[in-house]
Amino acid sequence: MFNWRNQTMKFNSVFSKALLITGAIVCTIGLQSCLDDDDNNYYYLRYPNALVTVKSDAEGSMFLQLDDKTTLLPTNVKKSPFGDKEVRALVNYDEVDESSGDYNKAVHINWIDSILTKPIAPDLGEENDEVYGTDPVEIINDWVTLAEDGYLTLRFRTVWGGQKKHFVNLLLSQGSENPYEVEFRHNAYGDVYGTTDDGLVAFKLDGLPDTEGKTVKLKLKWKSFSGEKSAEFDYCTRKSVTPSNPEAAAVRSNLKLE
Q1: What residues have CB less than 8 Å from 117, skipping those under 6 apart?
Q2: What is the pLDDT of residues 128-143, one digit of tens each?
Q3: Domains along the chain?
C-alpha cells in the first residue's frame, strides 16, 4: 500500500513492449513454449504473473520469495540461473500438485527474468548531483511498484535516446529527520532526446534502520517532469534471509541501465 502525493501522470497496468519481450522470449525456462497453438496459452505465457526475490538455501538450491510471507519451490529448476546473486525477478509460473517441503507452494517456472537489483548508493555529499544526476522520471503506480521482502521495486518512465546507459540509484534523503526517507536519482548523461519508455529497478533496503517488526511509512521522493513528488509505502524490515548474507548485484536490464 502506498499513498501518492502530487501525482498527475496517467497510470498504466501493462508493461511496455520492450520490457515484456525480454522477459517472455529471452529468458524462457521449462517445457512450455510461447509458440503454443492455443492463443490463450500464448498470451498467458507471454506476461509475468508475479514479482519475486530469487534466493538459494544453504545447499544452493533455488527458491522464490513471493511476498513477505510466501515462498515457492520450483520443481523444474534446481539452481538459480543468476548464480549466487540474490535478485528481484519477473516470473511466469504455474502451481503444481507436488510436495513443496519447507516452502509454501510448489511451482513450475515457465520463464523468469531478472531485473536490475542494487543496494542503496553511498552518500557523496556535494557530489551527489554530479554523480547520481537530477534528470526527471515519473514513478508509475503499478503492481510492481512496491516495498516487500526488504526491497523497494520501482517501475519508472523517462526519455531514452539509446545512446548511453542511464544511471539510476536510491539515496538516503539528506537533511531529513525521517530515517525512512529515500530519494530516487537518475543520471541520463545527456541522453534526453528520444522515445518515452519504462524501466524497472529494485533497491535493497538493508541500509535502513531495523523497524523491529513494526510496519512504518517509507517515503520516496523523486524529481518528475512536473516538479518534485513523493509517495509513501508500507515497509517492514525483512525478518529472515537465506542465505544469511546474500549479495545484491546490478544485473542485466532490457534497457540501457546501470
Answers
A1: 85, 86, 87, 88, 151, 201, 202, 203, 204, 248, 249, 250, 251
A2: 999 999 999 999 999 9
A3: 17-114 (2.40.50.500), 117-248 (2.60.40.2370)
Q: What is the pLDDT of residues 77-136, one digit of tens each?
A: 999 999 999 999 999 999 999 999 999 999 999 999 999 999 999 999 999 999 999 999
Q: DSSP character for 207?
A: T
For residue range 214-255, list pLDDT tens digits in order: 999 999 999 999 999 999 999 999 976 443 334 444 443 445
Q: Which three cell numbers stand for residue 64?
A: 522464490
**Which residues contact residue 217 at a Cβ distance below 8 angstroms, ignoring those fewer than 6 apart?**
180, 232, 233, 234, 235
pLDDT of residue 103: 96
Cα 41 to Cα 34, 46, 106, 110: the distances in Å are 8, 8, 21, 11
Helix, strand, or coil (residue 128): helix
Q: Which of 172, 168, 228 is nearest to 199 (CA)?
A: 168
Task: Please enumerate in sequence order all residues whose Cβ is within 8 A of that of 45, keeping only pairs 6 or more positions apart, or say none.
Answer: 24, 32, 33, 34, 36, 92, 110, 111
